[in-house]
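ingest -> validate -> predict -> emit
validate: passed (alphabet ok, no gaps, 185 aa)
predict: started
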Amino acid sequence: MKGFTREETRFSLCGLNCALCSMCLGGYCPGCGGGAGNQSCAIVKCSLQHGGVQFCWECPEYPCSRYEGFNDGDSFVPHRNRQQDIALAREIGLEAYLTQLEEKRAILDELLAHYNDGRRKTLFNIVAYLLPLEDLRSVMSALSSRPELEGQQIKEQALAAVDLLQEAANRRGINLKLNKKLKRG
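emit:
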């Protein structure tokens, strides 16, 4: 939204992890409150009406009706972990949360650089977003301990990464598909 800026653009007002978003990674969006290119947002308008809070949880009305139904559909990133991520950021502190977010971003960058066969970008964004950091670390460790992958074609490397990531998601009961918002009418 024009004229809306925030110091922290890796973690949005409403709890989305902009640092893991394909739109942000691709340079199409600077993150929530990052200046030119960010989209019009009702939550940004709300923040401005409430004194420019940097995170929704700072508002005395949090959680408000704007959160009702918001998690029903995804955009470029899953929305289902927003309130859980907000709770974690509040519990461990914003700086510690952002440190973990940066580690997830580094793992995402590694997945994209070394295991993307041209068809995995969305999946890798989703797993970086939804899987706990310890699971991502474990998958990356398992991949690095498989020297036979080094000589394989990228397609085989990608399949190995996908298999390990899917196994980690299955153990946690995490669905790795973006949820489409139901059309009203």
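The radius of gyration is 17 Å.
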